[in-house]
Amino acid sequence: MKVYVYGTGCGAGDLIDTALPLEQVSGFVDSRPTSETFLGKPVLSPEDLAQKNYDLVIVTSRHTEEIALRCEAAGIDETRLLFLKNHVTLIDRNQSYAAADELLGTAFVENLRSAQVPVPVPPWAGRSHLEKTDLENDYVRVRTLEALCGCLRDVPGAVAELGVYRGSFARCISLLLPDRTLYLFDTFAGFRQEETEGYGEGFIGAHRNTTLEDVRKQLPYPEKAVFRQGFFPETAVGLEESFALVSLDVDLEESTYAGLCWFLPRLERGGYLLLHDYNDPALPGVRNAVARYEEETGKRLSAVPVCDRNGSLVICG
Ligand SMILES: C[S@@+](CC[C@H](N)C(=O)[O-])C[C@H]1O[C@@H](n2cnc3c(N)ncnc32)[C@H](O)[C@@H]1O
To answer: In angstroms, what CA-CA distances link 196 with 29, 193, 201?
Structure first.
C-alpha cells in the first residue's frame, strides 16, 4: 500500500508520532516543497504525486480549500484524499472514507470522524484585516490576536514573537501592527536538544523544517522585522526595548520560563503577552513554567484564558 502525507509541518509530525508509523509512509507532499526530504522521506509536489501510484493521501495541513483545488488541477483522485483538519467553515470536506477504512482501519476513521467538529465563522464577527488563509489556521487564536492589537493604540513599545517556526502567526502580527518593530526570536532550526527528551521524532523533526529566509518571505512588512536567530535567552542579550505585545510560543518548559522572565518585566502597562499552549495537555511544561514564575517572583499574574485550539493564556501588562 502506498500512503502519502500532505504537509511537512507540525500536523504531519503529530500524525507520525500518534497514529501512522513513519515506515508506513511512502513520502510527503507539499504545495511548495522547500526541501527534498522530510523525516528522511521524499517530498513531492502534487503534480509529481499525480504521476505515481498512491492509495491514500492524508492531508495534515489546514489549507483545505487551497489543497483540494491544487490536487484537482494536478489530476489527483479526490476519493483518495483524506482531510484530517477541516476548514472551520466546512462541514466535512472528505469525499470518501473508503480508502482510509481499507488501509488504516475502521477505528482510525471513526476517531477522525468524531474529531471533526467544524466551527462556523460567526456572522457577528465582522470584517477582519487578516486573509482567509490566516483565519483558517486557528480562527479563535488569530481573532483574539486581532482584538488585542485593536486595544494597543496608546501603548508604546515594540512587538515580538519568541517561537516563530514557519512564521504563520508572525505574519498575522506583522499584518495587524505594520508600524511597530517586530522582533522575531527563533533558532529557525528547531528546539534545544536537551529540552526535547521524551518527545516524538515527528514533533522534533517537523520543527526543524523551516528557515529564516522562508519566514522573511511570509511577512507583509519584512523591513520592520528584526531577526534574532539562535537560542533564547542568549539572543536577547544587550537588547533594550519595551513591548506592547509579545507572542510566546516555544512549547517546552525551560524556554517558556526564560521567555516569561525576560519579557514580562519589559511588557508595557496596557500591553499583552499571548502565551500559546497554556491549556494543552500535550505540552504540560507551558503551564508548569507559569506556575514556577508565579512562585519564584511571588506575583500572581493578571491573565485571561482563551478557548482557542491549544488553550492560550493572555497575560496583561
Ligand atoms: C510551536 S513553534 C512556534 C509556532 C509559531 N508561533 C506559529 O504559531 O506559527 C515553536 C518554535 O519555538 C522555537 N524554540 C523553542 N525553544 C527555543 C529557544 N530557546 N530559543 C529559540 N527558539 C526556540 C522552535 O525552534 C520552534 O520553531
So the answer is: 26, 6, 10
Burial class (CB in 10 A: 0-12, 13-18, 19+), 195: middle
| 2 half-sphere exposure, CB direction, 13 A CA radius | 11
pLDDT for the residue 248: 98
Pocket of ligand 1 (CB under 6 A): 163-166, 168-169, 185-187, 190-192, 207, 231-232, 249-251, 255
**Ligand 1 atom at minimum distance from 163 CA:** 12
CA 250 to ligand 1 center in whole angstroms: 4
Residue 61 CA to residue 114 CA, distance in Å, equals 18
Classify the phi-psi angles of 190: left when phi > 0, otherwise alpha if psi is within -120 to 50, otherwise beta. Answer: left
pTM of the model: 0.88
Contact 186, 209 (CB under 8 A): no
Of all protein residues, the one whose alpha carbon is nearest to atom 21 of ligand 1 is 186
Q: Which residue segments constitute the domains of the chain, with CATH numbers given?
A: 3-83 (3.40.50.720), 137-316 (3.40.50.150)
Query: Residue 123: what pLDDT?
Result: 59
Ligand 1 atom with least separation from CA of 230: 21
